[in-house]
Amino acid sequence: MPKAKALTTKDDNARVSPYSKSKPSKSTTSSKSNADKENADAKPSSKPKLSRAAADIQSQYSDFRDIPLDEFDDEVPCYDDASIVRRKLNKLLTDKQYIPGTNKKWTQASMSKEMEVLESRMGGVECHRNSTGPSPRSLGTFLKKKGKMGGGDSPAYYWGYVLLEKLRIWEGGKKSKAREEAEME
Q: Which residues contact 126 (CB under 8 A, 6 or more apart)?
């Protein structure tokens, strides 16, 4: 293979710089243009606006974990399949939302800890009586499963559903159409 020829230029500083050498001109207007407003980072508000239902719930209960759920035979019926629960739990993790009442963000470890707290407050489910809620490892395994009922036998599915249901009520969220149809059956 032949050697590459060295580039020679008349000016050693002939490289094109990524930035112009002149300073940008200052704008004469003090207000931002519409383009600047659209591209500016949104400032997160300290408290999101709550619906009236959410405000009522939050005034009744000091903590989202205290919200009672309808139980049949000492169990909360799961109206969402495992894929929906996984999608919602992953959304909590990826959106970096805060745990209500704290300044901590959701992680798999914190989510597992919250599920353990729910399990200790509500009492175990018949099929998971000796467990203390899902460990971070079993939660991670559940979140990696595929299909409608992949991981449906995991304690992470049940306690994840309970956690999501309490958060939905705490935030004043509405039930999905699929959820309402499942309740009718």
A: 74, 75
